[in-house]
Design goal:
This protein has 107 residues and is mainly α. It has helices at residues 5-23, 28-53, 64-106. The protein starts with a helix and ends with a helix.
């Protein structure tokens, strides 16, 4: 657990960066939000994968109801919500890239 704090701190820092860039009106906020959301999704999937591989070493003592209510549902939200942020931000990034590409072709 102590080894994962660095990735958590980096994820939070990128999230705050996205927030403050957005407040400042920077278009770079979209890229920072995409990056932070990608980090959140991948980290949560990694943690779930580690639990599965370890035979649910850290949460296997819970009954099914507790496991679903206090582990699977919250972690599912940490995948679903950032995934939608990734889709929205990724769409904006792709539109911006297409606009730049179209401008280059017109010149």
């Amino acid at each position: 657990c102590h080894r994962t704090h660095r990735i958590n701190l980096l994820e939070v820092a990128v999230g705050f960066l996205a927030f403050f860039l957005h407040l400042g009106g920077s278009r770079a906020s979209v890229l920072a939000a995409f990056t932070a959301a990608t980090m959140t999704v991948s980290k949560t999937i990694l943690y779930l994968g580690l639990e599965i591989v370890s035979g649910f070493e850290n949460v296997g003592h819970n009954d099914l109801r507790t496991l679903v209510a206090l582990y699977l549902v919250p972690n599912g939200l940490w995948i679903i919500v950032p995934f939608f942020i990734m889709v929205a931000a990724g769409s904006r990034i792709l539109c911006a890239l297409a606009a730049v590409d179209g401008a280059k072709k017109n010149n």
